[in-house]
């Protein structure tokens, strides 16, 4: 159980980071495209990266007793 | 640079590209009968025949064939399904087993002489498999928890101040509904595609070097040797990718069954 | 030859996260091997470190296509 859980955690961490970057970076890119600016994509990517890392922390890093019994 | 290296051979080296994956139809102009399709059908026949033959005369003291079949089955059932999913695993063993053997056979076709084409390097095959997995794990979760509680569980992490949900909910939704099936299929596709391309580069390159001037002829055995070494490496990658696809399917199902908080 | 230098840059930039991920899990595995009961303490730390390193790699990947 433990090893499967750990591998699953790693893959889902990657999924979270990727989707965070893609969603918010994509929104920033769309905003850039629409407004003709160049910095929204960077802001979006930083925001998305930060948010997804926060999500990873919520899911996997919270509390040392943690590793909620899935 | 290329023309400088290979001027002696007449006619430049054409590096393998995506065009090498678009194989011509087997019969005339019927676009549905191409080599990948034929290989997929062949793999289905092979897998069925093998496991029917392996399980037909099941005995307490297994024959070699039965032992081979049973060890693959035991691997999927114990190491993948039971260890990952937990006590409800038996319902999902047929799907996981089918998935594993199907992908494994099709991947290994990539290095079997004469066949030598992994059907999974056409992205549509992994897409279909990922859609199956996608539907199954969402259906399992919805049946177990109900639609609204399941969506609520995905969308709202507990223990977060309310405004942050604006930031997090799109990410969670995208992860569950877009990124998971997409990465599942693209991982398999990219590995098979890149592996086949890599083999093409070394084998075709070695072949081309052999036609060159004497100096190049001397290099070509290295290219072939490297190609053979990479073939074994590819074998490892192919087994690994079949395993990972099945493992991730099992993990997603396990996540769908698990009671969160 | 056609192509873009972005991908070369991404290849170079992926070296860092690759080494980082390797080091994180090397440390995690040897830590758990020495003291198995420390697993629950080390696991979140290792995962967060992995997430940080992985985020850099994915940043590079996305930027290679965006820029």
From TrEMBL, chain C:
Assigned keywords, A-Z: CF(0), Hydrogen ion transport, Ion transport, Lipid-binding, Membrane, Transmembrane, Transmembrane helix, Transport
Ion transport found in the keyword field: yes
Topology relative to the membrane: Multi-pass membrane protein
Biological process according to GO: proton motive force-driven ATP synthesis
Main location group: membrane
Ranges for domain V-ATPase proteolipid subunit C-like: 10-67
Gene Ontology CC: one annotated term: proton-transporting two-sector ATPase complex, proton-transporting domain
InterPro entries, alphabetized: ATP_synth_F0_csu, ATP_synth_F0_csu_DDCD_BS, ATP_synth_F0_csu_sf, ATPase_proteolipid_c-like_dom, F/V-ATP_Csub_sf
Coiled coil feature spans: none
Database matches in PROSITE patterns: ATPASE_C
GO MF: lipid binding; proton transmembrane transporter activity
Compartment(s): Membrane
Transmembrane regions listed in the UniProt entry: 7-29, 41-66
Signal sequence region: none
A Pfam family it matches: ATP-synt_C
HAMAP family tied to this protein: ATP_synth_c_bact
Family: Belongs to the ATPase C chain family.
UniProt protein name: Unannotated protein
Organism: freshwater metagenome
